[in-house]
Protein 1
Amino acid sequence: MNILVTGANGQLGNEMRIVSRGSQDHYIFTDVVEVEGQETTILDITQLEAIRRVVKEQEIDVIVNCAAYTNVDKAESEPELAELLNAKAPENLARAMKEVGGLLVHISTDYVFGGDPYNTPCKEDQKGTPTGVYGLTKLHGEERIIATGVDYLIFRTAWLYSEFGKNFVKTMLNLTATKPQLKVVFDQVGTPTYAYDLAKAIFDIVGSRKFDGRTGIYHYSNEGVCSWFDFTKMIAEYAGNISCDIQPCHSEEFPSPVKRPAYSVLDKTKVKDTFGITIPYWTDSLRTCIKHIKEQ
Ligand SMILES: NC(=O)c1ccc[n+]([C@@H]2O[C@H](COP(=O)([O-])OP(=O)(O)OC[C@H]3O[C@@H](n4cnc5c(N)ncnc54)[C@H](OP(=O)(O)O)[C@@H]3O)[C@@H](O)[C@H]2O)c1
């Protein structure tokens, strides 16, 4: 198969580059800019004709869409751009794949939930109630993909981190190494996800052709539950940053342009049952990622 990855310079895109090394399928990595040392085809996913051209020329069977507008706070002041990248652009990819009978693998988020209070893990068919522009535009993206009639796998994930780009783990590695004290919110709980684990799951599902007849939305995060405070404590412990005094605090101590879900745990039963995969526990994956960051 010919598999095109968009947003290949981002966190998940870079992990797709790693997991697909040595694949029997032919992977083509695309993004809006080239990065030194990485083979990248330029493709702006807001441009339908450009997508159609590359799909035709490269005879693409599957698109894995890792591109998105991911700045949750900034989206509040740039709703049109967020809608373009998170809703219209995925529809473009879906239309292009529908025209050739291909598959679109798309990534969405736990932030499609959060408006309704709940305290049990969210299943795929729970009604979307986003609390901000980012979550709303990601929900629109899902709806627009489904409306095209394309074959799709939508993976909703959460709290993504990796050794690439900017993310919570890298920020906290730095802060816990340099600050004597740190306050971190304990009233928002969810599950971190190592982007490598998600990329590997996508790679295995696509590579094994297990997607036939399994169009749908699936939840994927690492296993377990924690607060941002617990997450930070483990980051500091694994990094050996023992001199920072980390204390829990309430979200209201850190005013933000967007309200985040208080309970943001995804139920992963469907993805495990459908594809027969096992998912690593969050602390095991965190330890692995920090080891890789330290080796860089
Ligand atoms: N990060 C999280 O915590 C999180 C949580 C839940 C779900 N997700 C979802 O997971 C997916 C992957 O997230 P990520 O953290 O890997 O994202 P990321 O690191 O922000 O990477 C996104 C990539 O898309 C590129 N891009 C932007 N506009 C584009 C365009 N018009 N055409 C093609 N590429 C474009 C970006 O380039 P520039 O950097 O140059 O703009 C970047 O390389 C996204 O769908 C996101 O919504 C993320």
Note: The chain has nine helices and 14 strands.
Protein 2
Amino acid sequence: MSTDPVTIARDLLRCRSVTPAEGGALGYLENVLKGAGFTVHRLTFSEPSEDMVENLYARIGTAKPNLVFAGHTDVVPPGDEKAWTRPPFAGEVDGPELFGRGAVDMKGGIACALAAVLDHLSAHGGKPKGSISFLITGDEEGIAVNGTPKLLQWAAAQGEKFDHCILGEPSNVENLGDTIKIGRRGSLNGHLIVSGRQGHVAYPERAENPIRGLVTLVSALQAEPLDDGSTHFPPSHLEFTSIDVGNKTVNLIPGEARARFNIRFNDKHTLDSLKKLVAQRAEKAAGGKIKFAFEWEPSNAPVFVTEPGPFTELVAKAVEDVTGRKPHLSTSGGTSDARFITAFCPVVEFGLVGRTMHQVDERVPIADLRALTTIYHKIIDRYFA
Ligand SMILES: [Zn+2]
């Protein structure tokens, strides 16, 4: 008899694990995994002035290769619970769908991975040919400091080695099987500060209005694309998100003007080369006449890509065999914990359909839970074949 992912998903949805609360979700996984013969570690990480976060690492087998399923059991808050047509933490099945916060992002994905692993183990005498691990954090939807990055460091310090990782985030856009994510653009936030000389509007010749300089630099930085894209990525993009002078006085020329921007960048850049490029362009536009400076916020979102190869092909083939769809290998969307995992092993993201994630009435078709379990099961079987 095969394991029912719907029951597991339901049990997980009933845990109130609103980030960063554990809510019983990791305890549930610990029990099930221990029952299947996994060695389970529960790790709590903290940082002064931040919430403590619980995490879990579980492994069965000691041999290579080690196939890792990664994910998070924390969820975003439900918002106004009365706006939901089914309670967000009841795990109610209605007709063809299972409702609840985290149904697709990503307790549903974890349930499918767990069901697939249990089925694989019971078909192979309870042991994998190599190793199978679960790397589960309770801090993905929050600031992601005491979650996956520290869990990975801890595992590395224990001598744990990962060979390949599947992160079960809701990667699909419209239908199960349409998208596997193999990378992500990097993200960098910056501030552009132009300084002038404060003065009276009636005597502009005695002042130097920084707004003029700011407008010149903002328009120059938007005028030219940063690059024309690369094999797996669209062109990098710089977008201004705010312009601030904060001047409440009608007859005063301000002394300083600021603008804030974000850059989503591809693998033609590193953080350093990108900062240099932006500064050079501003320099050129300023022509020595505008006094400006950049302030850069620290970024923990570098660009990365898992180059297509045997592993991505194995995953894509399993997806196609079950869904009939040839998945698109994408690098689009916001960041995920894959940006941390990529430093340790090749990682791909494949999970449920993201359409209702973070929304009221988040829900997942039961058929998708069963199909994703079958996909994961095929991946595991072929990986260890
Ligand atoms: Zn997620």
Note: The first strand starts at residue 39 and ends at 45.
Protein 3
Amino acid sequence: MTASSTSSSELPLASWARRLAPSAIQDMLQIITRPGVFSLALGLPAAELFPTEGMAEAAARVLAEQVGALQYSPTLEPLREQVVALMAKRGVRCSTSQVFLTTGAQQGLNLLTRLLLEPGQTVLLEDRVYSGFQQVLDPFQARRLTVRRDARTGLDLDGLASLLASGERPAFFYTMSDGHNPLGTSLAMDARERLVGLAREYRMPIIEDDAYGLLHYEEGGALPPLRSLDAQWVYYVGSFSKILAPALRVGWVVVPESLVFRLATVKESSDIDTATFTQRMVLSFLQSGKLEAHLTRLRGEYRLRRDTLLRALETHLPAGASWTKPTSGMFVWVELPEGSDTTVLLARALETQQVAFLPGQAFGVSGGRSASHGLRLNFSNCDPARIEEAVRRLGTVLRAA
Ligand SMILES: Cc1ncc(COP(=O)(O)O)c(C=O)c1O
């Protein structure tokens, strides 16, 4: 028998790897490339808004001026200085010694989990959670304990407090305070304060995923993240993917200084360096002072797309559906009456109307069905006319159901 004809059940895989199934996102990446599909499914930024000219100039400068641009390199101090300045705009005071550069936020989440979690230990998650984070947990076979994060009422802090009071000691709590994926919601200030208070009281680290925190749409900006309230128990994860471009694969974490060398050591075992060249491109772009204008443009365009989506939902969705109104991020979460199954609806939506969304089950913990009557819609990737048409089609599917 040749290697290529070995079926996966015969592969000598670790037990957790044997249980792996293709992710909903991988499946969807295939589906949305079919001609004629209107997709509100994935969290992709708008490609036409990438700062290609500024990036091309930055790349040319880096290649012309820096001999080491294509070499292995130690971590880039000036980029960490730029991150410190960006964090200050986000309301966080930190120093370069607390900033660690990563290959996107995803790697930040992965490395922190590897440092914090013993195999088989408990982690605390919200009951609607970014599917990519559950993938990070898979190799650890962690026990996943959940706390309710409701689209209307927010994070169930009473539930969280009683879990901790009952003696549960999770390795960490993973959360998003702004532009939640998939809910699109943000935590109120008093919830942030109470959550950080609980983390301190029970010495429970919080991994704060702020992949969308710099994309905010209301006057006065977003509230400060959890990291602004505590530098010891909150480990912050940020990214240039949504504000510049995901293909750069540059992100960062802000952690207590004593964690940094450990992060560096586990990262080295994984990919040695964050891509030296794209790091330098990002740095050169930031040094050219173009980020602020770019962010203003992005926020303006995404605000327009969000408003278009919300108006279209009012017009086309049947009674009984409700949805969130995000102030940050890229997603709106729609809830249908309990008992609806949006995985079944997705198949029908693709077949009859060629419209795509991500079904709630993709965000349920351990494949649980508590989110199955919800669906996630993205508003950053399509222009307003396509958003309008996609929602019109979605409305037709929902009314027929
Ligand atoms: C909530 C959340 N965290 C992290 C990531 C990973 O982002 P990055 O491209 O920076 O690795 C994503 C990507 O969509 C995300 O939605």
Note: Residues 43, 104-106, 130, 132, 181, 209, 211, 239, 241, 246, 251 surround pyridoxal-5'-phosphate (CB under 6 Å).
